[in-house]
Amino acid sequence: MATHLAALESAVNTFLLDPVNHDILVLLKGLRNGLVYGTKIRFPHALVMVLLFRSGTFREKFSTILTLTKNHAKTLGSFVLTYKSAMLFLRHLTGGKEEGHHSFLAGLLGGYLVFGRGKQTSVNQQIVMYVFARVVMGMAKLSVKKGIVPDPNGVVSNNAHPVFAAMSWACVMWLFRWHPDVVQSSLRTSMVYLYNNAETWDGWKNFLWHNS
Predict the structure, then answer these.
(1) Does pLDDT of 154 surpass 70?
(2) Whole-angstrom Cα distance, residue 138 to residue 168?
(3) One Pfam family from the UniProt entry (predicted)?
(4) Within this chain, do residues 111 and 6 fall inside the same structural domain, yes or no?
(5) CA distance between the termini of the chain
(6) Which of 14, 94, 104, 158 has its CA 20 to 30 A from that of 71?
């Protein structure tokens, strides 16, 4: 039995390490990583947020947690698979050489097919907003790195995050105060809990224990 297992393991490793199979295995490994990472990121977040802020029975809450986790894992897995497939295709068109614009085009295709065309779930919107915030910060730093924005003393790069944080919160608080309907639903729910509910109570129970 042990001999058969060792032979099977050797055959599997030979297949996995064969350069001929590398491209297709990259797609499978990328899909696997997207599914696993999406599950690891979303499950604990959904567990806390749903149990704390969603109404309903435990069964309904658990079903919501599983749905959110599945959506996040499926979305990331689908994007990685689409992106990697596009990169392989583009590299094939250029004789096996990766060009500088390939990652942009592959990301454009993946973003459109996975995040843009499909159902606009809260999970998809949160992922896109997270990425967009990181892009804005990254572009600010890149503009300094490339010399587009002069920064002889490191002032701009050192202050990039404080300025970004201040402007982000200034804009979102203004939107929430005067145009709450345009704020993303889960963020709006959190902000209602934090700010609006802090202004109303009729006794110690809904002052200290829960909101009215």
Answers:
(1) no
(2) 15
(3) Tim17
(4) yes
(5) 66
(6) 104
